[in-house]
Amino acid sequence: MLQAKGVSKVYQGSAGSVRALDGVSVSAGAGEFVSVQGPSGCGKSTLLLACGGLLGCDAGQIEIEGQDPYALGPNERAAFRAKHVGYVFQQFHLVPYLTVWDNILTPTLAHPLPDAAQRAEELIEYLGLGDRKHHVPAELSTGERQRTALARALLHHPNLLLADEPTGNLDSDSAHAVLRHLSEFAANGGAVLLVTHDDRAAGYAHRTVHMEAGKLVNGNT
Fold first, then answer.
1. How far is CA 30 from the centre of its chain?
2. Which of 68, 77, 86, 134 places its Cα 20 to 30 Å from the Cα of 106?
3. Residue 171: what pLDDT?
4. Distance CA 65, CA 170 (A)
5. Alpha helix segments (H runs only) across 100-205
């Protein structure tokens, strides 16, 4: 589902250059739940953005289901991401003035889905959001916001889920609920790449790779 090969990324700033990724290779196959662990600032989130077609690399290659997303034009790449990749972030990135229902449907702006309404209803039921679907994010608990973000990520039946510290803002019960859903996604044949510094989250993964200072230091890629 996902192959990242020799990925490097350097950020340029007023204080000089920072090598966020230095020849990193990682993969996640069908039915696999892979976690990437490491301290803050080690390059985990940069790796996830690169793997999801959201951040171009200076070197290396990304393939999602055999396709290099960076070989596509901006519009085509956005449609490809919407169709093939689901994203779950620590900060949720929900649109504050949209209801749960409308937030879940936002990926259809990049790639239409004929049965979007039916799919949204299924996800709302699956994630226990039935009594919240007409509420805006400010009216939700933190766990409900993350479940809304997960529903949005699952809308297009993606084969790959990318999760960046999805439990970082959650209490223990909400965190385990989200992790169970990610585990179920992998058990049903999807691929999950989870970035985390939380050992509880990594405990759900089939394998874990570790990063320090932009490099993998151990683990099976």
1. 15
2. 68
3. 86
4. 31
5. 100-105, 116-126, 142-154, 172-187, 199-202
Residue with tokens 């196959």: 29
Which pLDDT belongs to residue 197?
A: 83
Alpha-carbon distance 45 to 195, whole Å? 7
Q: Which two tokens stand for residue 89?
A: 């972030």
Q: What ranges do the domains of the chain cover?
A: 2-218
**What local confidence, expressed as pLDDT, does residue 148 receive?**
95
- Is residue 195 within 8 A of residue 45, CB to CB? The reply is yes
Residues 6 or more apart from 171 whose CB is under 8 A from it?
142, 143
- Residue 192's closest CA among 104, 88, 96, 53? 88
Tokens representing residue 92 in the block: 């949720």
DSSP symbol at 150: H
Q: Which CATH class is domain 2-218?
A: alpha beta
Q: Low-confidence residues of the chain, pLDDT below 70?
A: 219-221
pTM of the predicted model as reported, rounded to 2 decimal places: 0.90
